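Tokens in:
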């Protein structure tokens, strides 16, 4: 989770911490009795202030906000209306202008809302006066919500305004301006009281600087206070923002709270570019909304796997439906979305790239609440343990408690001979809950002593953004000791697609005849293609029999937490359930070639690297071994140095030089390349040096002795790798050559120094040579 999400979870936890976890009969009893076909609908009206105080840009932002929640509604059974209002101050004016009549927000209806909401921007002959007539606007909204309302469907009014009640110039409220304002306040109170009687919530949204916050609070408080769940965040409250630019975000947040959904804020940016928004694993229904502002902007949608999804139709278990592409706001409704980061790529033609776009996701988790009883067939007056687990429609088991921050869980036991009993359930590691934070809720209840016949157990949950269907667990009261009891355990909790996990069924037959038991699966994910085997087991009379079984997963099982409920029914006793256990298995992708053989690849790569290192060292060492770097070649006659050359370069393996003027009185040394005529070639072979003369002969360079050349010349070689400290010749001071000094003649020896000061004497040369070889 991102830091934003962690903060949101913490805030939701704090919000709901004050709500007691006692029995919640009001909301538990009112939950649907059968699995819902998606999110519950809500009827809502967006009432938009279009009075003279609203400038053109602010009115456009209001219209976008109205279209936003119409487009983003996640239930295709909901109904929406959009109403603009001002006042009626003279003949021909009216206080209310209905731009969108009640519209079912299916695919076609969402497109109609996108089109008609833009009519709010048209002020030409709209007939609205410049004042702010709240009573007339709210009365119109209540009338529309009343028409064709289905029993139990929540009704909500969202009021957008930049000011406060102003009917002092409206003749409908009396002749005197001061009396008109008082009459307007009176009629507003009456309309709000009517909203409370008709169970209509009022969510006011104010923007700008002249907002009467107290008046907005009074409108929120005076309407119907019970929300989609008994949670503080679902109760009407006013929202106030600084300007119209923030209206869409505030309104969508209020809308999510009113219909027990959540909003994930995405990124913003100008086209062309990419926006991102994250949908959590708990979401089962949602809409990705893009506020484009410019209808010329085009959007493409990519799921967390990087695949572009269709704008209409199905893909990878999800269903998609886009609307509003030709308007300033568009939305992609997604049923059973893949969790993770979604990307929206924006493009726009030149001249339509100056408006920033924003992406958000409004979502709700409709979870399956699967419940069990232990023992499965209790006696009247017996205390039983109730357990409940939650999973999505995809069959993904919810195992992260952070996704259910603030959840309230309960069950209801009903049956013949007694009134329904509410059972609070907890996930705190106490009160018969086995482990805290495992999202497996537990509690206890005593079966009433008057219970006879059938028993029915159903679970219910309420949390911000989460609702649950009620999947009943049916059994019946036992009149005596159970004929057969069964317990189920699993050996493993991890599997690859196409694999299997093992388990053990321990059945005890207390009857005098054999009983045949059937192993089955309930509440499983259809994508997992689960199979259990063996299908049936026969238990002998009076026997306690352990039976191993396996649960196999189909090859196409998606990764994640998958599960269901393993059931054990007694076919001999009319199919009565005698035991069950929750199946929770983490499915991980099948190991790839790399997963299986990575260690061999690593070992092989290590060996190759080691071999390469050895070869590199040998090459390097060989190169260094053959190098002549640091060798000094010195030419002498009669003990007098005539010239010297020093070998440079770490990779020099052949050093070529010539002796200039060998027969003259001032011979010298000069570097030459290998192709030069009359060149000497100095090379290293083995532990020593060899010198090849220009005539083609080759001879070793002796240790500690000169090498004789023609014309009474001698060649000394010293220095090189491992050169030690040179020792002075006996009988003279270091740095002094025997014999008289000669005049400087730089050209004579090729070193640029006067002959006679070029190096050491014979003894020094021998010492240097010995230390190097």
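Residues out:
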């Amino acid at each position: 989770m991102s830091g934003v999400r962690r903060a949101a979870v913490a805030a939701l936890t704090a919000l709901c911490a004050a709500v007691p976890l006692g029995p919640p009969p009001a909301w538990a009893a009112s939950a649907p009795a059968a699995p819902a076909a998606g999110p519950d609908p809500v009827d809502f009206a967006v009432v938009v202030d279009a009075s003279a105080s609203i400038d053109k840009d602010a009115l456009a932002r209001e219209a976008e906000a109205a279209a936003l929640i119409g487009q983003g509604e996640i239930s295709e059974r909901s109904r929406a209306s959009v109403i603009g209002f001002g006042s009626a101050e003279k003949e021909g004016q009216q206080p209310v202008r209905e731009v969108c009549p009640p519209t079912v927000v299916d695919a076609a209806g969402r497109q109609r809302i996108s089109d008609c909401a833009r009519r709010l921007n048209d002020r030409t002959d709209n007939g609205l006066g410049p004042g702010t007539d709240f009573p007339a606007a709210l009365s119109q909204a209540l009338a529309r919500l009343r028409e064709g309302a289905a029993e139990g469907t929540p009704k909500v009014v969202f009021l957008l305004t930049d000011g406060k009640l102003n009917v002092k110039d409206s003749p409908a409220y009396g002749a005197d301006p001061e009396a008109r304002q008082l009459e307007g306040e009176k009629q507003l109170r009456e309309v709000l009281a009517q909203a409370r009687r008709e169970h209509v919530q009022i969510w006011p949204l104010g923007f700008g600087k002249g907002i009467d916050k107290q008046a907005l609070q009074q409108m929120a408080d005076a309407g119907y206070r019970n929300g989609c769940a008994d949670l503080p965040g679902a109760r009407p409250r006013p929202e106030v923002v600084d300007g119209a630019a923030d209206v869409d975000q505030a309104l969508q947040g209020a809308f999510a709270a009113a219909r027990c959904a959540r909003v994930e804020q995405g990124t913003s940016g100008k086209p062309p570019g990419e926006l991102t928004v994250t949908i959590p694993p708990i979401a089962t229904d949602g809409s990705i909304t893009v506020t484009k502002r410019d209808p010329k902007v085009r959007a493409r949608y990519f799921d967390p796997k990087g695949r572009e999804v269709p704008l209409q139709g199905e893909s990878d278990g999800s269903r998609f439906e886009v609307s509003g592409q030709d308007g300033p706001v568009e939305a992609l409704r997604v049923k059973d979305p893949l969790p993770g980061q979604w990307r929206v790529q924006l493009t726009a033609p030149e001249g339509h790239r100056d408006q920033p776009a924003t992406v958000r996701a409004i979502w709700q988790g409709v979870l399956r609440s699967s419940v069990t009883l232990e023992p499965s067939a209790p006696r009247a007056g017996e205390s039983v343990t109730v357990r409940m687990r939650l999973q999505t429609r995809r069959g993904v088991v919810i195992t992260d408690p952070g996704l259910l921050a603030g959840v309230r869980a309960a069950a209801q036991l009903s049956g013949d001979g007694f009134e329904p009993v509410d059972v609070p359930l907890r996930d705190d590691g106490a009160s018969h809950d086995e482990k805290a934070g495992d999202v497996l809720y537990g509690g206890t209840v005593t079966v009433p002593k008057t219970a006879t016949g059938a028993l029915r157990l159903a679970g219910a949950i309420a949390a911000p953004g989460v609702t649950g269907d009620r999947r009943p667990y049916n059994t019946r009261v036992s009149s005596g000791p159970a004929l057969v009891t069964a317990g189920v355990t699993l050996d493993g909790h991890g599997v690859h697609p196409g694999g299997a996990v093992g388990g053990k069924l321990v059945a005890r037959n207390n009857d005098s005849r054999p009983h045949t038991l059937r192993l089955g699966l309930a509440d499983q994910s259809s994508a997992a293609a689960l199979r259990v085997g063996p299908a049936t087991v026969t238990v002998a009379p009076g026997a306690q029999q352990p039976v191993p079984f396996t649960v196999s997963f189909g090859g196409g099982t998606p990764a994640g937490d998958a599960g269901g409920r393993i059931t054990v029914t007694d076919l001999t006793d009319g199919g009565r359930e005698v035991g069950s256990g929750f199946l929770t298995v983490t499915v991980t992708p099948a190991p790839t070639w790399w997963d299986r053989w990575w260690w061999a690849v690593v070992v092989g790569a290590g060996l190759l690297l080691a071999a390469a290192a050895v070869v590199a060292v040998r090459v390097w060492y060989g190169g260094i071994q053959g190098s002549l770097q640091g060798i000094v070649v010195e030419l002498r006659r009669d003990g007098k140095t005539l010239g010297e050359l020093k070998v440079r370069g770490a990779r020099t393996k052949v050093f070529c030089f010539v002796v200039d003027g060998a027969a003259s009185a001032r011979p010298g040394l000069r570097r030459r390349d290998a192709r030069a005529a009359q060149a000497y070639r100095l090379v290293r072979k083995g532990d020593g040096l060899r010198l090849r003369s220009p005539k083609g002969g080759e001879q070793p360079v002796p240790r500690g002795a000169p090498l004789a050349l023609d014309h009474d010349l001698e060649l000394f070689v010293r220095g090189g790798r491992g050169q030690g400290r040179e020792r002075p010749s006996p009988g003279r001071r270091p740095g002094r050559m025997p014999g008289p000094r000669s005049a400087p003649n730089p050209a004579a020896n090729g070193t640029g120094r006067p002959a006679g000061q070029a190096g050491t004497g014979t003894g020094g040369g021998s010492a240097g040579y010995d230390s190097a070889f």
